[in-house]
Amino acid sequence: MNAQVDDWHEIYTAYQVARLGSLSAAAQQLEVHHSTVLRRINALEARMGARLFHRHPRGYVATEAGRVLMAAAAQAEAAFGVMRARVDESEALAGTLILTSVNNLVPYLTPLLAEFQRLHPNIRLEYAADSRIFRLERGEAHVGIRSVSRPKDPDYVVQHLTRATGTLYASRDYLRRHGPMSTLEDIAGHRFIGTTQPRPGSMYMRWMEQKVPAEQVFYRVQDFTGFIPALQAGLGCGALSCWHATLAPELQPLLPPPKEWAHDLWLTSHGDMHRSAKVQAFTRFLKDRIAERRTDFMPD
Q1: What span, in angstroms and rounded, lies between the C-alpha atoms of 60 and 19?
Q2: How far apart are CA 32 and CA 37, in angstroms?
Q3: How much is the pTM?
Q4: What is the pLDDT of residues 75-102, one digit of tens each?
Q5: Backbone φ, ψ for residue 69 (5° rounding)
Q6: 131 vs 128, 182, 224, 225, CA distance in Å?
Q7: Nearest of 285, 295, 279 to residue 92 by alpha carbon
Q8: How many CB atoms are located within 10 Å of the residue 10 CB?
Q9: CA-CA distance, 279 to 163, in Å (whole number)?
């Protein structure tokens, strides 16, 4: 018990296990994976050189050493609660909030970010949009929007944002010259817009690389932000998410959204930041606005 313990996350996790009696209940309360709870308990016991819990089939029971630590943790939690209430009163909806997503979401989300800032003028926004995945646990962003696969990091809080889909779009002039498509196999005679580098994270680009011959790709751009200008200019047809196509309503779909192109968007935040007032305010706002715009993402 002589070891200096300075990691409040481990102490607070142990406190929740002692209070609730099981790893799974503590994990649910903390909104982390149960393996994260176990890792923190083991690390705390190793630091202190003492066993804090008796492990039973029916749950975790604090040892004498555990009860001493938990009593101190309960007092600290009460003190933190008072401090949090005071801080929340003055600074809850202030400071910097960093959002990350793929870069083609920027033009769609920016008007929503302007609305959010009108509602919360003391929050400074940073939008880190890139093809790489920003690491929330390193403080690179507070909130992330991920596509397709549900993020599996055990320390992330993951919420379903919306179901989305896409299809192939082109200008009206292109459609007059080349006609629509009946299925994704109906590519003969069509000219496609692609990217200069492979994009394995995009189901649309994976389909192109697998199904569209290179000689039918007549124009390439660095990333999806260049697709709409190219489509508007009639340089070919190309894949867009349906929400992306709402930014250029003059573009026309070549076929209804293929079933296999439907996917999910996920809203992520790190467990350590998820309960902060600014993250809570932003995630509630974004979920509400995206729900109102459901047909932008999944047309009826």
Answers
A1: 10
A2: 7
A3: 0.68
A4: 877 776 666 655 554 456 788 899 988 8
A5: -65, -40
A6: 10, 31, 10, 11
A7: 279
A8: 21
A9: 22
Q: CA-CA-CA-CA torsion for 186, 189, 299, 156, nearest 10 degrees?
A: 80
Contacts of 97 (CB under 8 A, 6+ apart): 123, 124, 125, 126, 142, 143, 278, 279, 282
The single-letter code of the amino acid at 16 is: Q
Q: Which two tokens stand for residue 236?
A: 């070919």
- Using an 8 Å Cβ cutoff, are 144 and 218 in contact? no
Give pLDDT, residue 92: 63
Alpha-carbon span 179 to 126, nearest angstrom: 42
Return the structure tokens found at 89. Answer: 């009163």
Pairing outcome for strands 192-195 and 217-221: parallel
- Tokens matching residue 88: 């929340």
Other C-beta atoms lying within 10 Å of the C-beta of residue 191: 18
